[in-house]
Amino acid sequence: MPDHIASNAQLVGLRAIKEFNEGVEPENFYHTSHLLWMIEWLNKLGHGAPDSRMLQTLILRSPSYLGLRAISIMIIDENDQARHFAAHGYPTEAIKLQNIYTTIEEKLPSVDAMLTGKAVFLESRKELDCYSSYLRAWISYIPWMNSLMAFPLVNQERLSGSVVWSFDNDHAMDDFGRQLFTSLSLIVQSMMFQEFESNRNTTGLRDAGRVDNSTNLQESNDLQKKFHMSDRQLSIAKMIADGLTNREIAKTLNFSESTARYETIKIYERLQVKNRAQAAAMVRSLFSMLTT
To answer: Of the candidates 154, 151, 112, which has an alpha carbon nearest to the alpha carbon of residue 261?
Structure first.
């Protein structure tokens, strides 16, 4: 990671600390005393994306009062494949299950943060259990988990991943805690810059072949009927086959990137594929068969 990126990451955290310290009420003095751990961690930042050891250091230096026990980072590439990047603190069984669930289709806080660009806060074990069957199965291996926060990671206005903070209590769920972990997520985001840039430069689909735009209406209707797609989903499916990213699709069709991601997931479900590369190949193949 370039020096100026590391410096910017530290500035984000230090500015947050300054803001938190201003106007703190006497009864909340623990906030200011415990912020020293954040300064110590910032001073030890490396010049690369956070790995398991760095996440471990952050957990060990955090105040026990906050109950931070585990951290995980996921990223999404240009093929809409969500993949596990780094984690620390979760049981081995939970990591194995997370790797199975690491797809863009599953309803998990980490995935929802990536899709919507909004943070997810689950403040109790009951909220965790009720969120989705996938999350309920995952936390069955993590008996200590009682709350979590999931934040989107953004690179150049593109939703590029998420970071999840897991706790054994709900003490971090107050306003101060949410601001604190929002700032830490921004620091992680800054540290992921080089990884995100690498993903942006390797699309692998642009020259893989394009759907013939002269395909007649009957052929499009046949495909639409077979897979129960809406008009918009059919248009997006063709664009996926042509190698367009969700950001480009959203710009072309004049809606948000999160809408493009949502529709893309629905297209995966209709085509019964797991990722963008498979969807693109299948759409091109289907149009080819319809025109022969």
So the answer is: 112
Whole-model pTM above 0.70?
no
In the chain, which ranges are E strands?
Answer: 68-76, 82-88, 120-122, 147-155, 158-167
CA-to-CA distance for 268 and 262, rounded, in angstroms? 10
Q: How far is CA 252 from the centre of its chain?
A: 23
| Amino acid type, 117 | G
Structural domains of the chain, with CATH: 3-200 (3.30.450.40), 217-290 (1.10.10.10)
Q: Which phi and psi (to 5°) does residue 82 adopt?
A: -80, 135
Distance of CA 64 to the CA centre of its chain: 27
- 122 vs 21: CA distance, rounded Å: 26
Q: Give the pLDDT confidence of 125-143 residue by residue, as tens digits.
A: 999 999 988 889 889 999 9
Which stretches in the chain have pLDDT values below 70? 1-48, 77-81, 99-106, 199-222, 288-292
